């Protein structure tokens, strides 16, 4: 039942988001036809271009056509190049998924053990040092982390490329080398943030009555935590993971620029620069849907982790 409710909320929220995205871009000043043809275009050519773009029609009709295209997979054609948007968007989205997915894996692999370690040893020097390091890392912007990583691994050590992208089906080794630095730039900063939340969640579990009972029965702190505490500690951590995934999608816009990665962020910034509004609409809507889907999956995962939510 909870899945059905959340699915309905997802559909309604997506519909409202599409209306907001279209409305915000529709009220922006400027004429896409003028941008595409230049300042010396004649009124006849401008009128023809507006007709081809569909911008001479009423806004409700434009919205209905755009929404229908989204539902059918026809994302229209670029105002600037005239090429179909869908294939280009899917190629760029694949690149961003590789980057964000790898960064999320790095963040989880680093943060979960470090956060648990800092919680178990919170009264010892090692736990305090981990906590302090995570707090310091959370204050570092992703683009600054990227610049520092390039300085160390690309400029001085010359172990990895400073930028560029190779598709995995072209040269998998070059693909991995090009993926490491941008993924680390995103993942390590998010790992620092996530470590703090994991530490807090595990500390709450360690102070719970049922865990003290487990330890009183002879289980060690680590074994009691693994057997009885991690599932409860995972509930707030899943919330943060969902929020971080949304943050990574947005943060990838800057990182893709720093490392010259041809993902959605680069496509969005290029489209904004050339005022290719239909591309901007499609990219923003895709990012919005991705964030909403992540929130939906987090809600479903709640019900799996916490039986009380299923009963509620």
Automatic annotation (TrEMBL):
<keyword id="KW-0812">Transmembrane</keyword>
<feature type="transmembrane region" description="Helical">
    <location>
        <begin position="233"/>
        <end position="255"/>
    </location>
</feature>
<keyword id="KW-0472">Membrane</keyword>
<keyword id="KW-1003">Cell membrane</keyword>
<dbReference type="InterPro" id="IPR000515">
    <property type="entry name" value="MetI-like"/>
</dbReference>
<keyword id="KW-0813">Transport</keyword>
<comment type="similarity">
    <text>Belongs to the binding-protein-dependent transport system permease family.</text>
</comment>
<dbReference type="GO" id="GO:0005886">
    <property type="term" value="C:plasma membrane"/>
</dbReference>
<keyword id="KW-1133">Transmembrane helix</keyword>
<feature type="transmembrane region" description="Helical">
    <location>
        <begin position="283"/>
        <end position="305"/>
    </location>
</feature>
<dbReference type="Pfam" id="PF00528">
    <property type="entry name" value="BPD_transp_1"/>
</dbReference>
<feature type="transmembrane region" description="Helical">
    <location>
        <begin position="97"/>
        <end position="120"/>
    </location>
</feature>
<dbReference type="InterPro" id="IPR035906">
    <property type="entry name" value="MetI-like_sf"/>
</dbReference>
<dbReference type="GO" id="GO:0071916">
    <property type="term" value="F:dipeptide transmembrane transporter activity"/>
</dbReference>
<feature type="transmembrane region" description="Helical">
    <location>
        <begin position="174"/>
        <end position="194"/>
    </location>
</feature>
<feature type="domain" description="ABC transmembrane type-1">
    <location>
        <begin position="93"/>
        <end position="298"/>
    </location>
</feature>
<dbReference type="Pfam" id="PF19300">
    <property type="entry name" value="BPD_transp_1_N"/>
</dbReference>
<feature type="transmembrane region" description="Helical">
    <location>
        <begin position="132"/>
        <end position="154"/>
    </location>
</feature>
<feature type="transmembrane region" description="Helical">
    <location>
        <begin position="7"/>
        <end position="28"/>
    </location>
</feature>
<protein>
    <recommendedName>
        <fullName>ABC transmembrane type-1 domain-containing protein</fullName>
    </recommendedName>
</protein>
<dbReference type="InterPro" id="IPR045621">
    <property type="entry name" value="BPD_transp_1_N"/>
</dbReference>
